[in-house]
Amino acid sequence: MNDPLIVCRCEEITEEEIREAIRQGAHSLEELKRHLRVGMGPCQGRTCGPLIIRLLCQELQRSPESFSEWRKRPPLKPVTVGSLIPKGDV
Amino acid sequence: MSSDNHFDSIIVGGGIIGLSTACALSRMGERVAVIERKYLGSGSTGRCIGGLRQQFSTAASITLMQENMAMFAAMNDEFGFPVEFKASGYLLLAHNEGTWSTFQKNVALQQSLGLKVTLLSPAECKKLVPHLCTDDLIGAAHCPSDGQAFPFAVIRGYRQAIEKAGGTIFTHRPVTRIRTENSFTLTIHTGENIHSEKVLITAGPWTAELMKDIGIELPLYPERHEAVISERLPKFLGPMLVDYRTDGCYFQQLESGQIIGCYTPHPNVPGINEEVSFDFLPQVARRMARLVPALENVSLLRHWSGSYTMTPDGNPIVDESPIKNLYIAAGMCGHGFMLAPAIGKHLAIRMTEGIWQRNFSEFALDRSFSGQETLK
Q: What is the ipTM metric for this complex?
């Protein structure tokens, strides 16, 4: 038996969990996110997004272009609360 | 879509209200279909921050939320997996005399209805939340049994429960037309028709549009609200903090460790709008750090937006429409997630047995809409 392969490192979600969720009907990144919380951690899906699209392609026999990417939202990379506040404004 | 497209009830909208109602109906043995334009929770539900509170200003909302809290508390057992429910409490903060006197009035009413809520001094607040900055604070209202749950988990629980009870869920199928003759025929975007004896429209900010097509105008006004979430942190904040100043905000630490927060924009941003604004992040950062300075070193990961569907009096519309057997549940005013379990239960009884098991007159379609919920 192989060790479980972690695909979403931030939320520690494995390849098998993702394949199983796809088989249960989550046929897009947005639905997988809501089912497993993949892509919700500090990297916001930059690392796992392309990997999960490959799993979707394999499971559903579709091309990568047929899947939408996750919606990108600010601040894109983690930013501290303090650095967002203009100096002397607190 | 299945070959048999006839159902007892069709629910238009796969948000939390539609799912909880479909769950209750299918458990009563009704043949139910949920039709969702995108995926479940893709509207307001999947964008909300998951707060659950009983501290409202009218008896109808307070008692309905007391019923809801008990239903959320039972969900782990009901669904067989954790929905991240926690009675972490809500601490409503008054920084001016007007807000403070509103709290005093509301707390008297809440206590008379059996809710365990107390008014706290700034020193007592500091004891409860050691990281709270109490500058300019007059006092606060604290309800320890208010709390939180994870919307994605609750959606999943309802989905599984509906399917287990024999209900059908159609996703990625926008309804393009509703015909009302003796029974109902709904046309989806592919041109397919499905039929039912009863229909519930619970399509969040899209409800008004759907109803207008069949000649019913509803006082529903979607507006955009934005939210932010941080990295996961060890537990250090207790209750949801609600700062009622016009430049205030509200945030809590989730069971999963992240800080999640919002503020109410002034003036409001009308319309269905899923874009985010440039102003929000610096504003929310300043407002959150003013209350809890220790947050300055916390990293924010994501900022998004969703719709509050408002009504003129701040209460939802949950009623049968002037067309018999056509029901509406909309205008949740930002409280749909917390209101959903009990609204679904009572609406299911109303749709099958024709009676309200509790008084829903404050949510009636023919009310005057002249009152005002003071704890928005």
A: 0.93
